[in-house]
Design a protein that fits this description.
This protein is α/β, with parallel strands linked by helices. Helix content is 46%, strand content 14%.
Length: 259
């Protein structure tokens, strides 16, 4: 394979022409990298974020009306219902749901507040459930769809100051497996992706200095993950080639959890 073909395969590994993908937390980090990759692969995107930056992103990623930007609270069940109705009217289908929006409110277990616990569970666990429920009727009617939940290495290992976060991500993996089991007969797959620390803008800030050096030392490959690395796994799981993969929790952690 030539270098040119290899580069093209990295920038456009799949053809999603005619398919519609909804990505939450689309304005930054993993969500942004995923949205950019899926757009390059020809998908029509529904870009969901609490920031109105998602509106500009929709315009940047394609010509007018190619992509739909929605400013949305992913914990608001009524707003989600209205958004899915808008998507159905606009595109008539949803083929891929990427539940990427999340929050990490870090506290020692003995001092964690109920408010932070509830907010973590609402965004990291309840919202993906509500969105999956909302897109299910469209995917059922289509007899196919892909649900991809962004979990974390914290779903399978304990991390200090991450009680609520670990619990929410472990719950998200369990939810993923139930959806995979119940909805497989409709041609719908559900999988989770669990990265280690990812060098998003927020990740760089949170893991700057000595704490980052110490964390990298615990990862066998000696570095953090990049948003594009996660995005490419999302694209694969969303592709027809991954039709036999469902109910899995795939780690992108540089070997962290094997030590």
């Amino acid at each position: 394979m030539s270098a040119a073909l290899s580069a093209d395969a990295m920038t456009r590994p799949h053809d999603f022409s005619g398919r519609v993908a909804l990505v939450t937390g689309a304005a930054a980090g993993i969500g942004l990298a995923t949205s950019q990759l899926l757009a390059r692969c020809g998908a029509r995107l529904v870009l969901v974020d609490r920031s109105d930056a998602v509106l500009q992103l929709a315009r940047q990623l394609g010509p007018d009306h190619a992509h739909l930007g929605l400013v949305l609270d992913v914990c608001d069940e009524a707003a989600i219902g209205g958004a899915i109705a808008q998507v159905e009217q606009h595109y008539g289908r949803i083929d891929v749901l990427v539940n990427n929006a999340g929050v990490a409110l870090l506290q020692e277990a003995e001092s964690a507040t109920c408010a932070d616990w509830d907010r973590t569970m609402a965004i990291n666990l309840k919202a993906p459930f509500l969105l999956a429920q909302a897109v299910f009727p469209l995917m059922q009617r289509q007899q196919g769809g892909r649900i991809i939940n962004l979990a974390s290495q914290a779903s399978v290992v304990a991390l200090e100051r991450h009680a609520a976060y670990c619990a929410s991500k472990a719950g998200l993996v369990a939810l993923t497996r139930v959806l995979a089991l119940e909805w497989a007969r409709h041609g719908i797959t559900a999988n989770a992706i669990s990265p280690t620390v990812v060098e998003t803008e927020l990740g760089k800030q949170a893991w700057a200095g000595a704490v980052g050096v110490a964390m990298r030392a615990r990862i066998p490959v000696g570095r953090f993950a990049q948003p594009d690395e996660v995005a490419h796994l999302v694209a694969y799981l969303a592709s027809p080639q991954a039709a036999m993969i469902t109910g899995e929790n795939i780690l992108i952690d540089g070997g962290y959890t094997v030590t």
